[in-house]
Structure formats: C-alpha cells, structure tokens
Write a structure and sequence with these properties.
This protein has 386 residues and is α/β, with parallel strands linked by helices. The chain contains 14 helices and nine strands.
Length: 386
C-alpha cells in the first residue's frame, strides 16, 4: 500500500552531523524511557563508535540490554529471540545501531511488543494498529533508508520467503540519527553495495508511476548526493563529509520510495538475493544497469534529469541520447565500485534463472514500474544480467 499521491508524510525526526549520537540520552528522556533495548550485530558492537554510544548511556541512570544476534536477511527466529529479551527487560524504547537488517529487527520487535502475536501476522499492508515501541535508529550503512521507510523485511526460513511488514505511518523510526562517525569501519564492499541500494531507491522512486512533484524533488537530490559522493565514500569511509552526504541521500531516498514504491530492480533482486544468498544491495546493483536501460523508453525526460543530477552534460541531447547518457553514467558508476558484471561471476547456473523469471513476473510491479513488463521481458532482463 502506498500513500495517496496527494499526501506526503514523514513521521521521523532526523538529526544529522558528526557527533550527533550524543543526543541519544536527551531524546530518550524526551520520550520518558529509562529501560532500553539496543539492537545491533557483533561486528558493530566491537567498534569504537558503539563504545562511544554506550559511554553516553552509562553517564545516565538508564538501564539497557544489548541484543547482538542479528544476521543479514534476519529471520523470524531472530525476531522472536529479540522480542523475548526486550520483554524480559521491560524495555520502553529501542535503539537500533546497525544496517537495514538491525533496524528491521528492531521494528519487528517493537511491533510485537505492543501488538502481540507472531510477526507473520503482520506481513502485508497496515496489519497492525497499535504504535510500536519508540525506535531511535542509528544507521551504520548509507543504504537502506530503513530508519524512515514504512516497511521492515523479515525472512520466513521455514517457507523460504521474505515477508514485508508495511505501515507507512507507524513503522518508521521515531528518531533517525545520521552520524557519519558510525560509518568509519564499514567494509569497502558493504559501502558500495549499500550505497547503490540507496541509489536504486532514489532512481526507482523518481521514475515510478506513483511519483509526485514532492517525491521528484527529494529523489533528484538523493541521486545527486549519492552519485556525487559514493566513489569518495567507497575509497575512504572515514571521509565524514562524503559519509554524511551519503547518509542524507539514503534517508531522502527512503522517504521517497515509501511514498512511491519501487520497480523492477527490486522486483527481481529480492528473488536473486534469496536464490543465490546475495545481499540486497548487491542484487540491486547487478540488475540496475539492465532495468535502467529497459525502462528508459517510458520516461526519457526523467532520464535526462537523472543524467544531469549525476553530473552529466545533457545540453542539446535528444530524448534517446539523454537515456543513453544516464544509463552510461549508471553503468560506469557500478564499474567504478567493482560490481560484478553478472550473476555468472557469482556462481549462478543458467537453469536457476527460470524460477526467478516466474517469481518476478508473478509479483506484478507494473503498478509502479514505468514500463509495462511481460514474462518475456523479465526473461530477457534476467538473462541479460547473467
């Protein structure tokens, strides 16, 4: 479910800048919480940044418990374990310090804490009505935009599917802390994959059939911020200026696609990721140039704006030339970030593609994707990415 195009809503209060993590105790006091559930993963827990956050909390009388058993593509089992710890502690608020998986787990735990039941009860659109526990999200990747998005994705390992739990007004975090100091120890490949995930959010939202004047403005700025800084950020995650711009671009893109939905890149990548055990960002990055080329004919003037936002000179170009310029810039960006040229390089077999084609077609993203896509189109797109 996407908001009516005439409505724009962002319930998250956003704090940004180097050292802004120091605001956490004040924000927790603002919501009256002194028993805190902290969700993270073991890698983030070992960082200097996490120690700094703990240092801030240790100067208060707040009691907190730390849950670190969060994996990529988190499972129902992980959510249940986090929920039990949160309940046992009697937490009144949560802090998520990590990437999209961590933030999504905390969202799911927050939903169960106030609504009860099983997380599978809430798969789909607006299946819960009681506000979750207040969440303060501190992203340690510049990619998912989960801190402001209306969804969280949890894997049902028993059935081999990813559940999307969506509520456009209740699921975003109460506060987002965009601190580039949190990105300093991010591995280079994660910086590339998550950064391209954010780019895809902005790009697909911009060309979506549900785009509006407001989302267009937000997404063009996100495209500009990400395309203009992702290479510097990839080269040096301690570059706080590039890191902050990437975080802001990712958050803007999260706001954008919450209102517009995404398109065929996401439609296909979710099945690629599940089948070949690839990160969501890498799956998106592999499909990005191919779907971008396919969709160009549907909205060439938007591609002209994408090319310009990426720093390309579009003066005097025809519509088709503008599309080619945008696709070339996107392809070059992926190459500069060492994205594999196709699924074959990641060990995929050609016979694996048949299932992905069928699953992608059945998703029916034609409500959002700018170009109508048939089963044959999906077959050609996915084969091209092989």
């Amino acid at each position: 479910m996407i908001l009516d195009p005439s409505v724009f809503h962002c319930p998250t209060q956003i704090h940004m800048g180097a050292g802004v993590y120091k605001q956490l105790p004040r924000l927790l006091n603002e919501i009256g919480a002194n028993r805190i559930f902290i969700g993270t993963d073991k890698a983030v827990e070992s960082t200097d940044f996490f120690s700094r956050v703990r240092g801030q909390l240790d100067q208060t009388d707040m009691e907190y418990v730390i849950f670190t058993d969060i994996e990529p593509d988190p499972s129902v089992k992980t959510v249940n374990a986090g929920y039990k710890l949160c309940q046992d502690h009697g937490a009144a608020a949560m802090i998520a310090i990590g990437g999209g998986s961590t933030i999504d787990v905390c969202k799911a735990v927050g939903i169960l804490s106030t609504n009860g039941g099983k997380i599978s009860d809430y798969a789909g659109n607006h299946k819960f009505s009681i506000p979750p526990l207040p969440l303060l999200a501190v992203p340690t990747t510049a990619g998912t935009g989960s801190e402001v998005s209306g969804s969280c994705v949890i894997t049902d390992t028993d059935n081999g599917v990813k559940m999307s739990i969506r509520h456009l007004t209740l699921n975003p975090a109460r506060f987002a802390i965009l601190d580039p100091l949190a990105l300093a120890t991010l591995p280079a490949h994660v910086a590339a994959h998550s950064g391209l995930d954010a780019f895809v959010h902005a790009f697909e939202s911009f060309v979506s059939r549900r785009a509006t004047l407001l989302t267009d403005s937000i997404n063009l700025q996100a495209i500009s911020l990400i395309a203009g800084n992702i290479r510097q950020f990839y080269a040096n995650r301690e570059n706080t200026e590039a890191g902050l711009r990437m975080l802001c671009g990712s958050t803007l893109a999260g706001i954008g696609f919450t209102h517009t939905g995404t398109g065929n890149i996401h439609c296909i990548s979710r099945h690629i990721g599940a089948r070949f055990h690839l990160s969501h960002g890498l799956s998106n990055a592999i499909m990005l140039p191919h779907v971008a080329r396919f969709n160009g004919v549907a909205c060439p003037e938007k591609y002209r704006q994408v090319a310009a936002a990426m720093g390309e000179n579009t003066w005097g170009l025809s519509a088709n030339e503008a599309v080619d310029r945008a696709v070339a810039a996107i392809t070059r960006m992926c190459g500069d970030l060492d994205i594999p040229g196709g699924l074959r390089q990641l060990g995929a077999a050609k016979e694996d593609l048949v299932e992905i084609v069928e699953r992608s077609f059945k998703e029916n993203y034609n409500a959002w994707n700018p170009r109508h896509t048939s089963r044959k189109d999906f077959e050609e797109l996915i084969t091209a990415a092989y």
